[in-house]
Structures are given as C-alpha cells and as structure tokens.
Amino acid sequence: MKQDKQDRRSLRTRNLIIDAMLELLFEKRYESITVQDILDRADIGRSTFYTHYYDKEDVLASIAEEMLGTFSQQFSQRNVEQEILPGLELFEHVQQHSQYFQAMLRGYAGEVLWDATQNALSNIIEQALVATYGSKPSPSIPWSLIAQYLSGAFLSLLRWWLNAEMPYTPEQMEKIFQQLALPGILNIAEGERC
After folding, report:
1. Which contiguous run of DSSP H or E holds residue 163?
2. Is the pLDDT of residue 5 over 80?
3. CB atoms within 10 A of CB 137
4. Closest Cα to residue 17, out of 25, 6, 27?
5. How far apart are CA 68 and CA 65, in angstroms?
6. pLDDT top residue among 96 and 108
7. Which of 29, 45, 56, 91 lies in the 20 to 30 Å Cα band around 104?
8. Which CATH number is 1-54's, of 1.20.58.100, 3.30.43.10, 3.30.70.600, 1.10.10.60?
9. What is the pLDDT of residues 146-171, one digit of tens each?
10. Is the overall model pTM greater than 0.85, yes or no?
C-alpha cells in the first residue's frame, strides 16, 4: 500500500476502494476484476485510486492486512494460559462472516489471503508456545516449525469446513482439531523426544 495518509478524506477514499473490492469479490473471481471495475463501483477517478494504491493486488493485500490486524488484536487480548491456538474464536469468526470468507477464498485472492493468514497465525501460535513452554528445555523440533505445522493443519481443516458448508459447529470443529493435531505437539512441547 502506498504511504498511509491519515486525514479523513484519504481514509474515506481507501474505505470506498476496499468496500468496492469486497463487493466485487462477492460477485466474481479476483482474476476477472479490473481496476476499472473498482473505480466504477467506488465512484472515484483513476488518479484518486492510484494516489492510494498501486494496483488491485495492493487493495487485496490491504484487505488481508486489515483482517489479520483484527485477528491479532483479538488474540493479543487472550489470557496466555488459554489454548495455544485460538481455534474456537477463529471458527466462530469465520462462521459469523462465512460469506465474506467464501468469497475471499476463491482463486488468487484466496491464495494471497491464505498465505498471509498462515504467516500471522503461525506467529501467534509460536508466541503462545514460547510463553507456555519456553521455560522448559527446547523441544526436538523448533517452535517455529511446530507453529507452522499447527497453523497449516488448522487452516486446512478450516478450508474443508467452509467448502463443506460448515456441517459441524465451531465447538465441534475445535474439538476435532484438538484431537487430530495437538496430542503429538504437546508431547514434543512437554519434552518427549521423537
């Protein structure tokens, strides 16, 4: 994203552009959206668009960044002694905004969002692992690798859940994830060797 201006007009313009992109993502795939589509939907001129963003990919990155900022803020307020992965909160959030996530996960837009989400989630998990188990001897597998595995497994399960039209409740999905992914990880974190 170009230099962040904080005046009201700039914020309003960026919000118009982001809202236009989100509306268009509900209607069609990212690949078929043009900058002109965004301009028409936001009812702004080309020079105004390029004052705030480089291209449509920059708008998409801004949307992903905003969403991940919200996630990070929610999770930073959690008690450190809670689960390592805020799975239930994530499943609930996705369920509440399922249309948005289904639209965002199609095509190239989904890959950009998915990669950014996995990186952010991996960082959150690694911080929680270190905060919870950092006083114990280092595990046989680095925390960063454990966090990457957990975030990937979680997001894979989340994607399946969305594509299957959420046949289980968020609570059931959290329990399924806990049963599938966490026993081995917790053994490693507690000091058992592979």
Report:
1. helix 143-163
2. no
3. 7
4. 25
5. 5
6. 96
7. 45
8. 1.10.10.60
9. 999 999 999 999 999 998 999 999 99
10. no
